From TrEMBL:
It comes from the Eukaryota. It comes from Acacia crassicarpa. Signal peptide: none annotated. This is Receptor ligand binding region domain-containing protein. The keyword Nucleotidyltransferase does not apply. PANTHER family: OS06G0188250 PROTEIN, RECEPTOR LIGAND BINDING REGION DOMAIN-CONTAINING PROTEIN.
């Protein structure tokens, strides 16, 4: 979906500003959610294709390594979906996050829970870096609004529906 939106925005921009001489050339590579593929594709784009920037990667796990590559090769990495707060600590001048990090999202979730007056919740989350990374921030924010977290449930991302329902 993100790729389609980027392509549509690219097309719309140049239809509206056809007089612009500078052109963006989109090169799309699919990492298939694999960290190694993402790093390999990013390295190829930076080193061989000589791109001037990379938009994405989709997942924080992929972003961590790609940000390091971008820093070493002086190529900006723009991400609109990598939310892990730990990525901020990389402090690379070549990393631009355009979305809220986990901490900010946790504040919003806690505000919703407070608005409903819920005093106890059990977070159910995907057992990935993203899911596990969000929970400490969420627990801290829930404590601030006097909501207890008596238990947590992680779901393996490879689980079948029948396993989840058990």
């Amino acid at each position: 979906m993100a790729i389609l939106c980027i392509q549509m925005a690219h097309q719309d921009f140049y239809e509206h500003y056809s007089h612009y001489q500078t052109r963006l050339d989109l090169r799309i590579m699919d990492s298939e959610k694999d960290v190694i593929r993402a790093a390999s594709a990013a390295f190829d784009l930076m080193k061989n294709e000589k791109v001037h920037a990379i938009i994405e990667p989709l997942f924080s796990e992929q972003a961590r390594f790609v940000i390091q590559l971008g820093h070493k090769l002086h190529v900006p990495i723009v991400s609109f979906s990598a939310t892990s707060s730990s990525l901020s600590s990389t402090r690379s001048k070549y990393f631009i996050r355009t979305t809220q990090d986990d901490c900010s999202q946790s504040q919003a979730i806690a505000a919703i829970i407070e608005a409903y007056g819920w005093r106890e919740i059990v977070p159910i989350y995907e057992d990935t870096e993203y899911g596990r990374g969000l929970i400490p921030y969420l627990a801290d924010e829930l404590e601030k609004v006097n909501t207890r977290v008596p238990d947590r449930r992680a779901i393996d991302p490879n689980s079948e529906e029948s396993e989840i329902l058990e």
